[in-house]
Design a protein that fits this description.
The protein has 148 residues and is mainly α. The two termini are 18 Å apart. It is built from 5 helices and no strands. 76% of the residues lie in helices and 0% in strands.
């Protein structure tokens, strides 16, 4: 019988529990999946704000459509990852990796296209405090799910 040494790091311990076959792992797996859906819902709200405020402010054709499309793709990735996580599918690795990539792209384009001054600082703060940590979390989830 193989014994597993428990990882003392909390994130790794949680991810190990998410992938476990035991009935006790069902609750945390559903909680994380529910959290992903909540984040997707919040992001969708932000999409609505963008759709109503970015019209006419950019000189690029379909600029607001591009940003809304990027955020919709992120929403889709979060929901797909959540659904696959509930099913304990190894495809979480693919959905999580794709979503991490979209989050990185969003951070990059937000910072690089923001006008100087306050807008740029807000974009940088969002990248450093929200998008990049979320991308890292999705990448770690994707990697760890490959071991399930």
């Amino acid at each position: 019988m193989e014994s597993r040494i428990r990882d003392p790091r909390p994130l790794h311990a949680l991810l190990d529990r998410l992938g476990a076959d035991a009935p006790a792992s069902e609750r945390p797996r559903k909680a994380v999946a529910g959290g992903l859906v909540v984040v997707a819902a919040l992001l969708f709200g932000w999409i609505l704000v963008l759709g109503s405020t970015t019209r006419g402010q950019a000189e690029v054709r379909n600029w607001s459509t591009v940003w809304i499309g990027m955020d919709l793709l992120q929403c889709t990735g979060l929901i797909a990852t959540a659904l696959l996580l509930v099913r304990r599918s190894r495809l979480v690795a693919l959905a999580g990796a794709a979503t991490a990539t979209l989050l990185l792209l969003d951070a990059w384009f937000d910072v690089m296209t923001a006008e100087g001054g306050g807008d740029w600082y807000v974009a940088l703060a969002m990248a450093l405090l929200v998008e990049l940590p979320a991308a890292v979390a999705m990448a770690v989830l994707a990697r760890r799910s490959m071991d399930w």
